[in-house]
Amino acid sequence: MGVRPPQQDGSDADHIEFGIAALEPHLDDRIDYPATAEEVVQAVGDVQVSYDASGGTVALSEVLEKTPKRRFESKRDLLDALHPVFEEYRAAASNSLVGRLRGLLPF
What we know:
The protein is α+β, with helices and mostly antiparallel strands. The chain has one domain. The chain is about 50% helix and about 15% strand. It has a two-stranded antiparallel sheet. The protein has a two-stranded antiparallel ribbon with strand order 3-6. The chain has a two-stranded antiparallel ribbon with strand order 4-5. The protein is globular. This is DUF2795 domain-containing protein. It comes from Salinigranum rubrum.
């Protein structure tokens, strides 16, 4: 997923990537599929991945622990398994008091 940040100066700002869109660049050509969750973390490292537009992050190993799958047949299979977990993190953050306050601020 990705969203554009608020535009204040009229210039074309880059979009902010989070969830599987933020993770995908770390996965390119680094993993031989099929791969286990442990092999994925070994190949790319335990990177911090943004799960919302406010900058919240979570470790890849933590997201993988919450997936019901332990083995992924392809990159698409991995991303499909991780997507609902990132959505849970995003929803939990937006429901928190801090998340709601961040949503009200223009920056």
